[in-house]
């Protein structure tokens, strides 16, 4: 057990280190970063002074050593544009992003699981077919296109919802839908198939024969057993949701992490972009690690494959 | 199973095998194939089928709505954009770019992923470890972010975009192919091949690869729809296809400023993206069912 956990943790750390290195190398091979930073027509002396000030005159190995040391020490660099630590910039934007992720997740679970259950229980009815068609559409329509279509209808045509910002609850409606649509669709689909699997099991027939009420049967016996695959799907979708949120935040001018990353890309603000990519990678790696370890606790067979 | 042989005359009247196969496909899916064919044809013949030059500006007829609305201008079926360009013609040319990019990216990732997956599964050992380590890393980062990083570093060129699309989803093929090869490697027909002295490459390409074809085809439909989405998102952010060339995504992105006054500029390409994504996914779903492929999602 301990061995499995330490191997998995070591692999996760190794993955993060490789990503750190790749990001470093990638930002250095792109030619002179300094050219993006200085205004055109800067005289050679000032340029040389700036190169020295930023430490870009040292050897690449030396730069890498400094970079890793500073990273481990919790210094992640200064934004080229704002001249303040990148972690501070992201920290300010963490709240709105977390709120958006959380509301998308809640939407997917609170709406998705009941819809999936209904689709499983009432299968072959018009209602179930309607739900599954909607789920397919939610799955097929790209997030940012959905965002644009929602904007066109609810902001510009009907004028019901605000089109940008994160000030009031009304601001949350469209971004939550746009970020959560694919996850919602996935939850509906997997809840349905997972419930169908469980509902045909013998122990449910036994429970029904014993006279367990249909309500208790579905919620206590079936749903509980269907839960594991559903949670797995949500775990697997984390990467997709984070990726989608980056674009959606830009569409709705949401003051979150994703909008900052896109802004950093457009401005070529490497320290900011680098920290954003590494931060998201760290989150995904940690989530996957946690899921793996949880599985190995729940189901000992997983460990053998290690 | 009857063994009656039809006479020649009878055989002539019978529908051909292809036609029979076509009729076995459900009606909805047949419709999808027709729409897909129509879209590909329109994209391939864009210069001939689009009513106007997509880049021709006519500043006197800017922001005209589609036919049927007030102020519409004859000849401009879907209206004009902020520079007086024909939205329909731009959509058709944008479709060419979007589909072309997705096809290029899909081909690159298919080749790369299948090759590395075969290598990983067949050779095993350190090669396998190394390739799977790269796969792990690729899974760890949301690819949208990798794409942003690459674009920030290498700039916004068509070559860069093709590179990004090519490396975006190779690991999906690699994982599937590797798993299949691992399962096939110890089956009797492969061992028999090895026993009669068949070369590795012959075994791999003539005997193992054909058995991996179905899951690859199914995965390809998923990858293509993902690539369409990725290209559209990047172009939408202004980090993909650069003007004056337009893809469907960049049309949506550039039309955003006019959403209040001229929603059709954005709605037309957005709905076209939805149509393309729907058709590809429906065909993919059907393929998965009919080829009986179980993919671990």
Automatic annotation (TrEMBL), chain A:
<feature type="domain" description="ABC transmembrane type-1">
    <location>
        <begin position="94"/>
        <end position="295"/>
    </location>
</feature>
<feature type="transmembrane region" description="Helical">
    <location>
        <begin position="172"/>
        <end position="191"/>
    </location>
</feature>
<keyword id="KW-1003">Cell membrane</keyword>
<dbReference type="GO" id="GO:0005886">
    <property type="term" value="C:plasma membrane"/>
</dbReference>
<dbReference type="Pfam" id="PF00528">
    <property type="entry name" value="BPD_transp_1"/>
</dbReference>
<keyword id="KW-0813">Transport</keyword>
<keyword id="KW-0472">Membrane</keyword>
<keyword id="KW-1133">Transmembrane helix</keyword>
<feature type="transmembrane region" description="Helical">
    <location>
        <begin position="227"/>
        <end position="253"/>
    </location>
</feature>
<dbReference type="GO" id="GO:0055085">
    <property type="term" value="P:transmembrane transport"/>
</dbReference>
<protein>
    <submittedName>
        <fullName>Peptide ABC transporter permease</fullName>
    </submittedName>
</protein>
<feature type="transmembrane region" description="Helical">
    <location>
        <begin position="273"/>
        <end position="295"/>
    </location>
</feature>
<feature type="transmembrane region" description="Helical">
    <location>
        <begin position="133"/>
        <end position="160"/>
    </location>
</feature>
<keyword id="KW-0812">Transmembrane</keyword>
<dbReference type="InterPro" id="IPR035906">
    <property type="entry name" value="MetI-like_sf"/>
</dbReference>
<dbReference type="InterPro" id="IPR000515">
    <property type="entry name" value="MetI-like"/>
</dbReference>
<comment type="similarity">
    <text>Belongs to the binding-protein-dependent transport system permease family.</text>
</comment>
<feature type="transmembrane region" description="Helical">
    <location>
        <begin position="98"/>
        <end position="121"/>
    </location>
</feature>
TrEMBL record, chain B:
<dbReference type="GO" id="GO:0005886">
    <property type="term" value="C:plasma membrane"/>
</dbReference>
<dbReference type="Pfam" id="PF00528">
    <property type="entry name" value="BPD_transp_1"/>
</dbReference>
<keyword id="KW-0812">Transmembrane</keyword>
<dbReference type="InterPro" id="IPR035906">
    <property type="entry name" value="MetI-like_sf"/>
</dbReference>
<protein>
    <submittedName>
        <fullName>ABC transporter permease</fullName>
    </submittedName>
</protein>
<feature type="transmembrane region" description="Helical">
    <location>
        <begin position="264"/>
        <end position="287"/>
    </location>
</feature>
<keyword id="KW-0472">Membrane</keyword>
<dbReference type="InterPro" id="IPR000515">
    <property type="entry name" value="MetI-like"/>
</dbReference>
<feature type="domain" description="ABC transmembrane type-1">
    <location>
        <begin position="95"/>
        <end position="284"/>
    </location>
</feature>
<dbReference type="GO" id="GO:0055085">
    <property type="term" value="P:transmembrane transport"/>
</dbReference>
<comment type="similarity">
    <text>Belongs to the binding-protein-dependent transport system permease family.</text>
</comment>
<dbReference type="InterPro" id="IPR050366">
    <property type="entry name" value="BP-dependent_transpt_permease"/>
</dbReference>
<feature type="transmembrane region" description="Helical">
    <location>
        <begin position="208"/>
        <end position="229"/>
    </location>
</feature>
<keyword id="KW-1133">Transmembrane helix</keyword>
<feature type="transmembrane region" description="Helical">
    <location>
        <begin position="95"/>
        <end position="119"/>
    </location>
</feature>
<keyword id="KW-1003">Cell membrane</keyword>
<feature type="transmembrane region" description="Helical">
    <location>
        <begin position="27"/>
        <end position="49"/>
    </location>
</feature>
<feature type="transmembrane region" description="Helical">
    <location>
        <begin position="139"/>
        <end position="170"/>
    </location>
</feature>
<keyword id="KW-0813">Transport</keyword>
